[in-house]
Write a structure and sequence with these properties.
The protein is an alpha/beta fold. It has 2 domains: 154 residues, 3-Layer(aba) Sandwich (Rossmann fold), CATH 3.40.50.1000; 65 residues. Helix content is 46%, strand content 13%. The chain contains 10 helices and 8 strands. The strands form 2 sheets. Strands 5-4-1-6-7-8 form a 6-stranded parallel sheet, sandwiched between helices. Strand 6, helix 8 and strand 7 form a beta-alpha-beta unit. The longest helix has 17 residues.
Length: 225
């Protein structure tokens, strides 16, 4: 693993939002199952949800059995309503804010690269005061393809004006890891989010962190940041 980062100077960090910084898994799980129940479709266990989750939400919801335009519209409307009524379900993962502050104080450039909407990301900014950490935000609307396409990563790197090889991606989903691997970025897979530990392992990131404390050690000791 260390050979993947040898000789590199890290200049920027690319963060996923949901499942990496913000614990939104219960919100997504509950909302999706509510919609499936109201549509008379099969619901999923938490474990099944983690195994089926994909960053590209249109592909993901098809796997969940939501196919027609009316069903998609119903999901989107329910989701947006619950963003207001159930915002109390969102929280930051313990220890992640300290890492953001650590990197910010050391003047590393940081981008948020997410498959969530700008409105959902703005909700996180308002709730958790995350704005100061990210000079670039790539949301669902900002790229014409989602992870595992490299397009969101490439757009973030271009806006940061850094080389992909000098970037570190931190993501809880195999789709994000695969997207960053396509452009040669260093990858850290975290296992506390939407994908299971096995899916993260199978994606073969350069490093794996099972807790924010382990993530901090990877950043400071393995990457010498």
């Amino acid at each position: 693993m260390l050979s993947a980062t040898s000789g590199r100077k890290v200049s920027a960090f690319l963060w996923d939002a949901d499942g990496t910084i913000v614990d939104s898994r219960n919100f997504a799980f509950d909302t999706t199952n509510e919609v499936l129940r109201r549509l008379g479709k099969r619901t999923f266990t938490s474990e099944e949800f983690r195994e089926l989750f994909l960053a590209d939400w249109r592909v993901h919801i098809r796997h969940m059995g939501i196919n027609s335009e009316d069903e998609v519209r119903f999901l989107v409307d329910t989701w947006n309503t619950r963003l207001v009524t159930d915002r109390h379900k969102f929280k930051l993962y313990d220890g992640v804010l300290s890492i953001l502050r650590y990197l910010h104080l050391r003047s590393y450039k940081m981008a948020l690269v997410s498959s969530s909407s700008r409105s959902q990301l703005q909700l996180y900014f308002n709730m958790f005061a995350l704005n100061e950490f990210f000079s670039t935000v790539i949301a669902k609307e900002d790229a014409d393809a989602q992870k595992p396409s490299a397009k969101p990563i490439t757009k973030a790197v271009e806006q940061l004006k850094v080389s992909p090889g000098n970037c570190v991606l931190i993501d809880d989903a195999e789709d994000g890891i695969q997207a960053a691997q396509k452009v040669g970025a260093v990858t850290i897979g975290v296992t506390w989010g939407f994908n299971s530990s096995q899916r993260i392992t199978d994606a073969k990131p350069d490093f794996i962190a099972e807790t924010p404390k382990e993530l901090y050690r990877v950043i400071t000791e393995k990457l010498s940041c």
